[in-house]
């Protein structure tokens, strides 16, 4: 009997995750999902939770260092890790954290440096506009800061002139995370690669 249920369970999970990866939002989520601040993509929304544990605590600083890395899978869409930056912001707002108490820093490294190419460089490489630029601009407008690993940039033969000026180059992702940790930021990996 176990041999029957395990493959069935696996098939259900794979189908569900395939739908999520393709951006198809189930109707039961569409009916309930909310967008406290950012709404530029369906997957940056949050599901309401009544009386959730660990609500906003005014004695805490909500400082988060987000780890963004991965490969470019679809040059015509906002990269999923950048969507997770917006979702992280929305989740904190939904949890009652005032915007002025949220400090988010996104640290980009690895192949994800391709997502932050300037419009001109992105057009040259992918023959399309860079969909990540508008998302980064919206997030920056809410106070989110973006840094990129200088080591990854060198590996991909890129300089600061090749990327959007909204992203600042640090010597490395590692040193950036160490510095942010010392400044009281909580580390959160939002990448799926």
Sum this structure up briefly.
This protein is of the alpha/beta class and 193 residues long. It has helices spanning 2-21, 27-30, 80-94, 119-126, 131-141, 150-155, 173-182; strands spanning 62-68, 102-108, 145-149, 167-170, 186-189. It has one domain (51-189): 3-Layer(aba) Sandwich (Hypothetical Protein Ychn, Chain: A), CATH 3.40.1260.10.
Number of helices: 7
CATH C-level class? Alpha Beta
Low-confidence stretches: 1-22
Order of helices and strands: HHEHEHHEHEHE
What proportion of the residues is helical, as a percent range? 25-40%
Organism: Algoriphagus aquimarinus
Keywords: Signal
Protein name: Intracellular sulfur oxidation protein, DsrE/DsrF family
Signal peptide: 1-21
Secondary-structure map with pairings?
Blueprint (H helix, E strand, L loop, with lengths): L1 H20 L5 H4 L31 E7 L11 H15 L7 E7 L10 H8 L4 H11 L3 E5 H6 L11 E4 L2 H10 L3 E4 L4
Parallel strand pairs: 1-2, 1-5, 2-3, 3-4
Helix pairs in contact: 3-5
């Amino acid at each position: 009997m176990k041999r029957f249920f395990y493959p069935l369970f696996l098939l259900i999970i794979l189908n569900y995750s395939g739908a999520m990866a393709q951006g198809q939002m189930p109707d039961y989520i569409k009916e309930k999902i909310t967008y406290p601040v950012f709404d530029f993509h369906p997957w940056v929304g949050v599901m309401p939770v009544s009386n959730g544990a660990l609500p906003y605590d005014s004695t805490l600083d909500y400082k988060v260092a987000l780890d963004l890395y991965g490969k470019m899978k679809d040059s015509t869409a906002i990269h999923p890790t950048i969507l997770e930056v917006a979702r992280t912001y929305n989740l904190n707002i939904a949890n009652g954290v005032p915007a002025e108490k949220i400090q988010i820093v996104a640290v980009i490294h690895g192949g994800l440096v391709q997502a932050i190419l300037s419009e001109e460089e992105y057009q040259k490489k992918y023959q399309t506009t860079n969909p990540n630029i508008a998302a980064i601009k919206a997030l920056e407008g809410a106070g989110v800061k973006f840094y990129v690993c200088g080591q990854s940039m060198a590996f991909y033969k890129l300089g600061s002139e090749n990327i959007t000026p909204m992203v600042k180059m640090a010597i490395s992702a590692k040193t950036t995370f160490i510095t942010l940790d010392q400044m009281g930021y909580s580390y959160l990996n939002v990448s799926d690669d």
